[in-house]
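Per reviewer request, we include the raw input and output of the structure prediction for the construct analysed in the revised manuscript.
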Amino acid sequence: MHARLLVMTAVAVALAIPSAAQVKKQEMPGIRNYSRVDATVGCGGQTDPSAMAALKKEGYVSVISLRLPTEEGANVDAGRAAAQAAGLKYIHLPFNAASPDPKVVSEFLGAVADKTNQPVFIHCGSANRVGAMWMIKRALQDGWAVERAQAEGEAIGLTNPQLKEFAATYIKEHPAKR
């Protein structure tokens, strides 16, 4: 009887909590590790400037690049020019995974919260930094539990233990906006 009650409770809890990750991995020419999170957000790793026109056709309004200008293959200026030529707003928020800056996180949260930037495509080199930033966004702006936010961040591309720790610490040190 007790075991049956535990199973019924576990099933009820599982049904009450939406899936941690809505991330849908897709192929997109010119974009490494592309995924669609929902109708307003797409994520990826290294994005070739030639992919900007396709992003516009997919319905994106803006692009947030977390790449450092000094990264191999980053070509931020070409990405910006291609985005603008395609009619996309380009937001460059260089985010260093080796030395994460909380100020960049704050700027990121403002940019993704701005409805005029949606739908938004967010990218870095691999989708690792994107996953960390998205984890923070989900916890602080959407009120998700840290574990659920981390699971979605990992589905996007978050693998770096230091970035996971940075994101978790940032979440603990900043109040959630609900």
